[in-house]
Design goal:
about 10% strand; DNA processing protein DprA; eight-stranded mixed sheet; DprA; globular; 13 helices; alpha/beta
């Protein structure tokens, strides 16, 4: 995980065939296929800080051999050619209940309108009231309001946040208290990026595929045509997950839709009304 930049389709497939130890030995020796070597950074990374953090209990490293590994999500990502994670750094509930209880991803615009913020919070609370977890990347706007809506349900709300950085980085910085409240309330923070990894745009897009894969359904509350949230919808659709789009004002740029979200808008309206 230290030597690669997700998504790593070739390295993941190679490790699945040979096992991680033998795969690493072959990569070190330079005898792995060119596609695998192209996904590996040089020189070999220093793992001492990672091992110290694991020993101290600051985080948990989940691997495909663990009972808590999200097998369905990893399998679907690998089968679709999207790239399954090699492992997951986790902070929060050690039982990872939210990973196995079919979360609903609620995502959307960072610059949400008051309408979008209200609907996101209502969805978060309504889903949490049914003992279903909310999943997203804890971004500003729609995502943060959905998480806060879930947390407002008398401690019942559980959240799964997929980070585009190391588990110890705390990004967005303004959401430090929110992330701590999530882990204190039985939720989890998950990332495929090692400790200390800084966020950047490409990692944000790579993260979206995990949000989609770990969720049973995705709801787009508001999103412009270039919104990163639409990457979640497209991946979810590609993986065969349900995708919904909340109808919004036709005059609003954050209620723009593409073909992926447009065909699901009526379903989202029906789902939204029935969940109230």
């Amino acid at each position: 995980m230290r030597a690669t930049e997700p998504p790593t389709q070739s390295v993941g497939a190679y490790a699945a065939v040979h096992g991680p130890v033998e795969a690493a030995d072959r990569i070190r020796a330079g005898c792995a296929p060119p596609a695998v070597l192209a996904e590996v950074a040089q020189p070999e990374p220093d793992l001492r800080d990672d091992l110290a953090a694991l020993e101290a209990g600051h985080a948990r490293l989940l691997t495909p051999e663990d009972d808590d590994w999200p097998n369905a999500a990893a399998h679907d990502l690998a089968a679709s050619g999207t790239g399954a994670p090699l492992g997951l750094w986790v902070c929060g509930d050690p039982q990872l209940g939210v990973l196995t209880a079919g979360p609903v991803a609620v995502v959307g615009s960072l610059a949400a309108s008051p309408y979008g913020e209200y609907v996101a919070a209502e969805l978060g609370q309504g889903v949490a009231d049914r003992d279903i977890a909310i999943a997203n990347g804890a971004g500003f706007g729609v995502e943060a309001h959905a998480l806060r809506g879930a947390l407002s349900t008398s401690g019942r709300g559980r959240c799964l946040v997929v980070l585009a950085c190391g588990i110890d980085v705390g990004y967005p910085a303004d959401h430090g208290p929110l992330l701590r409240e999530i882990t204190d309330s039985g939720g989890v923070l998950v990332t495929e990026y090692p400790l200390g990894t800084k966020p950047r745009r490409t990692r944000g897009y790579a993260r979206q595929r995990l949000v989609a894969a770990l969720s049973e359904a995705t709801v787009i509350v508001e999103a412009g045509r270039r919104s990163p949230a639409l990457a979640v919808a497209r991946t979810a659709s590609r993986l065969g997950r349900r995708v919904y789009a909340v109808p919004g004002p036709v005059t609003s740029a954050t209620s723009a839709v593409d073909r992926t979200t447009e065909r699901h808008a009526d379903q989202a309206y029906t789902w939204l009304i029935s969940s109230r």
